[in-house]
Amino acid sequence: DWWHRWSVRAGYSFLSEAFVHETVDRAEAGIPDHVRVTVVPHGPLDFPQPVESGVELRKRFGIPERARVLLSFGQVRDGKNLSMAIESLKGFSDLWLLVAGAEAGGPNRPVKFYQELAETQGVAARCRWFTEFVPADRVGSYFLAADLVLLVYSRAFRSASGVLNAAVQFRKPCLASSGQSALRTQVERYRLGVWVEPHDPSAIKEGIRHWLRGVPEPLWNEYL
Question: Model's pTM, two decimal places?
Answer without folding.
Answer: 0.90
